[in-house]
Each structure stands twice: as C-alpha cells, then as structure tokens.
Amino acid sequence: MTDEKTDLTVADAATGDADGAARTAAPADVTPQGHPMHRVLSFVRRSARLDARLQRAWDAYAGRYLLDLNAGEGSLDVRDGFVLDAAFAERTWGNANPLVVEIGTGQGENVVAAAAAHPELNFLAVEVYDPGIAHTLLLAGKQDLRNLRVAQVNAPELLKATADATLAEVWTFFPDPWPKKKHHKRRIVQPTLAAEVHRALAEGGVWRIATDIEDYALHVHEVMDGLDGWRNLGKLTVSLPTGHVGKGNADLARDMPHADFAESERFDGRILTNFERKGLDAGRVIHDFTYLRV
Ligand SMILES: C[S@@+](CC[C@H](N)C(=O)[O-])C[C@H]1O[C@@H](n2cnc3c(N)ncnc32)[C@H](O)[C@@H]1O
C-alpha cells in the first residue's frame, strides 16, 4: 500500500513532496540549532480522493467513530498534551474494558471483525490513509459497532501519547514491507516503537505481529528477540536466512546461511484480509509473532 517513489521525512514534508502535492507538514521537530530534524516515517503521505461511497461513509460516521486527537486539520501528529489513558478510554468507550490497538488497519476488515466478535473488548484502529479510514468507518457504521474507535494519526506518535499500562494488546498485521535495503529504517517495527509499546501495555499484555515477507520476519526477530522486557511466546521453529536481501532479491536468500527462530501459530483472532490472501496466492508464507510484555 506504500508508494516507494518518494523518501519522505519531516524535513521533506515541510517543503512539499516530490510530486508537488500540497500537504500539511507535521510540526517540524527541530534540532537545538533550529534545523528541522530528520524523522523517518513508515508511510508516504499521498493525497487520495474518496469516491462518493467512501465520502458518504466519512460524512455519516466520522462524527461517531473518528477521534479528535490530531494536532491540526490534515496533520497526522497527535496534538500536544493529548494522553490516551484509562480516563480517556472510559470517557470514549463508555466502559473500562480491555483496550486493543491495531496499528495500520488498512481497509479495517480485521479490526471491524474483531470488534464485532468481541463486544467485551474495546478496539482502536490506527491508520493514516484516508480511503482506509473511510472504509473502516463504513464497515463499523454498517454494523453499528459500539466498541470501536478510529484514529488517523502516525501510530508511533499515538503510542508515545499513551499512558503506562493502558493497553491490553497491540496488533501490527502486515506492516508495509519497505523491501529496499535503504528503506529498512522505515519499517514500523523498530526498537523505539517497541519501547513505547512495552510501556503502554498492561501487565500480561502482548504485541502481535504478522508479516508475509520473509525478510521482514528476520527484521522482527532482530528487533524484538534480544530486547529486555519481552518474551517471544512462539512455539514453532522456523528456519530463516540470517542475512538481509534487498528488493527483488528474495531468491538470493535461499542460498544464505539459515538459523532457527521461534514463531507463533496463526493468530486465530485475525481474519483473512484481502491483503493476506494476496500474499498467500503469491506463494508467500505467513509469519506470526506474539511478544509478551514481561
Ligand atoms: C500493508 S498495509 C496492511 C493493512 C492491514 N493491516 C491488512 O492486513 O490488510 C499497512 C498499513 O499500515 C499503514 N501505516 C503505515 N505506517 C503507519 C503509521 N506510522 N501509522 C499508522 N498507519 C500506518 C499503511 O497506511 C497501510 O494501510
């Protein structure tokens, strides 16, 4: 879902992107010298028009489901001072049920199905892309879901704004693969995000991750398996190449040295989205991870 043609950072955003589309710059983080800080983002902001059906869904349901926590009109940053804590959750969802946050919900198929199947849990869908948000609103509105809310913000910012021990689970399913080696730093699973997720999870909370990209699976192991404070609950042994390959070179990985890693069975709380189905149809293997906050 990501267009890799541009290499957008906050510094770029302040000056406009490569194709000249108008955009709202995130408030530029600045160095002590006043220069814009180079913040690596896991997505490229694209201006996408909503078709009539999605626009109608937005108009009908944004008021009910979309949280007002952005720094400004069109900004994907969380506004200064916003805190996602138990009090906010209770005001927003109307109860103190456990809260599950899905990062990068795409079209919303999974989070909506999970919310419908688990009225005893609260769900927050976090996505940046307008059509995905609108589609999620459409699905939620059609089912009249009461336990789902949607945030259109850069997920790491929201995690940063989340109070300690607020979340029951965090889900990141099929994150954008960023296959080129020079883009691996844009992959959303990073030690900095892991630290925020760890802090935001309550005792016994888990971060569930899934990917259909073998090189991303290795990346997840590299980021997560050695981090203090996490236990990989995986019971399956999976053999993966121990070196990274860039875009278009996945075949080279077969001849690289391999090592064993622990991964999970398919998370049965995840429905088969179009995105996952396409990966399976292309012959890719799904890697599931469950990391317990310890
Ligand atoms: C490859 S798609 C997968 C969507 C969905 N999880 C699925 O399985 O169908 C990854 C999604 O993550 C979203 N995304 C990427 N970086 C994000 C960020 N920093 N904050 C929120 N969403 C993000 C993208 O817009 C995209 O919709």
TrEMBL record:
Residues that, per the record, bind substrate: K180, D212, T273, N274, F275, E276
Gene3D superfamilies (UniProt xref): Vaccinia Virus protein VP39
Catalytic activity annotation: guanosine(46) in tRNA + S-adenosyl-L-methionine = N(7)-methylguanosine(46) in tRNA + S-adenosyl-L-homocysteine
GO cellular component: tRNA methyltransferase complex
GO molecular-function term, one example from the UniProt record: tRNA (guanine(46)-N7)-methyltransferase activity
Enzyme nomenclature, EC number: 2.1.1.33
Compositionally biased residues, Low complexity: 8-29
Highest taxon listed in the record's lineage: Bacteria
UniProt binding sites for S-adenosyl-L-methionine: E102, E127, N154, D176
SUPFAM superfamilies reported for this sequence: S-adenosyl-L-methionine-dependent methyltransferases (SSF53335)
Protein's name in the database: tRNA (guanine-N(7)-)-methyltransferase
Organism of provenance: Bifidobacterium pullorum subsp. saeculare
Gene name of the record: trmB
